[in-house]
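Why should sequence recovery work at all? Because a backbone constrains its sequence more than one might expect. Tight turns favour small or flexible residues, buried strands favour hydrophobic ones, and helices have their own preferences. The token representation captures these environments compactly. In the example below, the structure is given first.
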């Protein structure tokens, strides 16, 4: 009799473990944002864009806006799922009216990104890779490109067809 109870209990535990729902990427993102900024006053954020399986299966990017003591900023973050848990790997960000036109992560996958406030810019290229441009809000766009190559040149293409190389501003 005890053996039947023990076997029944084991099956019950196995059944319950199979029912545990994995945390979605979006749930992880919002939970982590709340944890990172707990207690901060005058802080808000909004998820602008997310994409799963970007470079490999079980990875993701998120583009999000923050309103904080420095003003409004926009960020792109890379995430990877390991052992069924999402991990926040790296983040780059910018401000709309900053002299920094773009930045790139210094570890793979190399994510190039930047804010756009100039409506005459129609396309952005990182090397030969065409960047994705997101409409964030009125007159504010954000672009990103993911590449396996570090040290790429970045070009804006304007509506009139003119191409312009954009230098990265490096801070010491």
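From this structural description, the recovered sequence reads:
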């Amino acid at each position: 009799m005890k053996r039947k109870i023990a076997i029944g209990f084991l099956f019950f535990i196995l059944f319950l473990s199979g029912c545990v729902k994995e945390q979605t990427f979006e749930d992880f993102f919002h939970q982590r944002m709340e944890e990172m900024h707990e207690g901060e006053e005058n802080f808000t954020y909004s998820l602008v864009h997310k994409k799963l399986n970007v470079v490999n299966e079980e990875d993701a990017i998120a583009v999000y806006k923050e309103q904080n003591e420095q003003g409004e900023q926009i960020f792109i973050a890379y995430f990877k799922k390991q052992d069924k848990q999402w991990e926040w790997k790296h983040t780059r960000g910018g401000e709309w009216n900053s002299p920094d036109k773009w930045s790139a992560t210094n570890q793979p996958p190399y994510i190039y990104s930047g804010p756009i406030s100039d409506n005459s810019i129609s396309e952005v290229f990182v090397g030969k890779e065409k960047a994705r441009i997101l409409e964030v809000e009125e007159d504010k766009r954000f672009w990103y490109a993911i590449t396996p190559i570090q040290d790429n040149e970045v070009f804006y293409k304007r509506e009139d067809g003119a191409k312009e190389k954009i230098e990265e501003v490096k801070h010491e």
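A few observations help interpret the result. Residues 21-166 form one domain.
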